[in-house]
Design goal:
With about 450 residues, the chain is of the alpha/beta class. It is built from 15 helices and 14 strands. A hairpin with an 8-residue loop joins strand 11 and strand 12 (about 360-365). The chain is globular.
């Protein structure tokens, strides 16, 4: 976003939203994968707490989340667009779902379940092959979602009934092709190469992820620039749709009474480290934007306190006394009005390509990454923001490691969570007919857009 200091990307509508409210500079996703992150967002709980392990263990409506609670309070609670919940047969709390995108067939991307015997991910070749300019099924879908949300917001009955709207756009998710008017904003000659060059990881758990998510093997210098340009174009396309929704809210006469939250479910490497996509504990993948604007939110402010998508639940529900969530989640409105203070950041990953569960915390200048059964990683993110120098083996930092391990243990029993994830995945593999059935099942690189 322009408001977060990017030198190229044009996001005038998000910049205006940030100017009218508070932008949190340190927000993490609870898990750098769509399905797990969205389950945590819905409930205000960590992925391991609700067993939202991967792209197949999607949110079923249990435990109840902020949508259920707001519905119980008599609100219309309506979703528009991507949910990545399990299925329309589940009660996820919404009173209406418009153009919903669920996981495929109620089981999602099943190939990633086989983590002890990874199934080769040949679909990774599609990312570089799809780079281009023009409309895709996703951009057309986002246009439909935006139009539906705008029509709903401006309907006269909106002023008669308290409501919550969850407007979920897919862009800038791949395929990396942006509509022509937005692609034109980023001539290839003006697009910089990745900020971080290729990196060969030393940790075996990270090596395994890198080998599995090998999108980078199919990119050369030209397609890397073209892919980055397309992603920037999709960011501006997203911003344009956000602008339309905010304009519709203005037209409805309800802007001053409405709290607006903008965020994303995960990040994107965009060629950094030679990687594309998500799934890792690095900032490219774990960090997401967070802007809150509306009643009670300081305008034009930035806050450095660590926040997370799980904090959306108590924010929607009006504070820490919410009926859902865990002890870690706090209202973003409350945090926007407090001086920056120390708060733990947390994320985890148990999906495709991972040979073990990975858990990360950030506390002060230290980022600690625990890979169950392997040596941890430790980064001084104040002096090494690109996370290039793992100092976990430095004997001078033994106490730092111990302190970070204790802080992580206060959030999660990593062994128990790791064991539970593998057990749930192996049970689902058996239920689906075994590993061969997964290999021969429906394969895809991204969830098909609803018709």
């Amino acid at each position: 976003m322009g408001c977060s200091g990017h030198s190229i990307v044009q996001t005038p509508n998000l910049d205006r939203l940030a100017a009218s409210g508070t932008r949190f500079t340190n927000c993490w996703t609870p898990s750098p994968i769509c399905v797990s992150a969205r389950a945590a967002l819905a409930t205000g709980r960590w992925a391991h707490e609700i067993e939202a392990w991967d792209s197949s263990h999607a949110y079923t409506g249990e435990p109840h989340g902020w949508a259920h609670e707001m519905r119980n309070r008599g609100r219309d609670v309506v979703s528009f667009g991507k949910l990545h919940h399990r299925s329309g047969a589940d009660d996820d709390g919404f009173t209406e779902r418009v153009l919903p995108m669920f996981i495929v067939g109620g089981v999602g991307w099943v190939q990633g379940l086989s983590r002890r015997q990874p199934i080769p991910y040949d679909e990774s070749a599609e990312l570089a092959a799809d780079v281009g300019v023009g409309e895709t099924t996703y951009t057309r879908y986002d246009r439909r979602v935006t139009a539906a949300a705008c029509n709903w917001l401006t309907a006269p009955e909106r002023s008669d009934q308290p409501w919550v709207a969850f407007v979920s756009l897919v862009a800038p998710h791949y395929p990396l092709a942006a509509p022509e008017e937005f692609a034109a904003l980023y001539p290839h000659g003006e697009v910089p190469p990745p900020e971080i060059g290729p990196v060969v990881p030393a940790n075996p758990a990270v090596q395994a992820l890198t080998k599995f998510w090998n999108y980078g093997d199919y990119f050369d210098d030209a397609t890397t620039i073209a892919g980055r340009a397309a992603y920037f174009g999709l960011c501006s396309f997203l911003d344009d749709n956000v602008g339309k929704v905010l304009s519709a809210l203005d037209d409805s006469g309800q802007s001053e009474d409405t709290l607006v939250i903008y965020s994303s479910d995960h990040g994107e490497f965009l060629g950094n480290r030679g990687l594309w996509g998500k799934s890792f504990m690095y900032e490219d993948s774990a960090a997401v934007p967070m802007i809150v604007s509306g009643p009670g939110v300081p305008p034009g402010a930035t806050v450095d306190t660590n926040v997370n998508l799980i904090d959306i639940a108590p924010t929607v529900l009006g504070g820490a006394a919410a009926a859902v969530g865990n002890g870690h989640a706090r209202s973003l409105v409350e945090l926007a009005n407090l001086p920056t203070h120390e708060r733990l950041a947390f994320t985890e990953y148990h999906d495709g390509g991972s040979i073990t569960g990975s858990f990360a915390i950030r506390h002060g200048e230290w980022k600690y990454v625990h890979h169950e059964g392997f040596e941890p990683e430790l980064f001084d993110v104040e002096n090494d923001p690109d996370e290039l120098n793992d100092v976990a083996a430095d004997v001078r930092l033994i106490e730092v490691r111990r302190r970070c391990a204790k802080l992580l243990a206060d959030v999660v029993d990593t062994k128990a969570a790791n064991d539970a994830a593998f057990a749930a995945q192996e049970a689902m593999i058996a239920e689906l007919g075994g590993r061969d059935a997964l290999i021969n099942g429906f394969r895809f690189n991204h969830t098909p857009a609803p018709g």
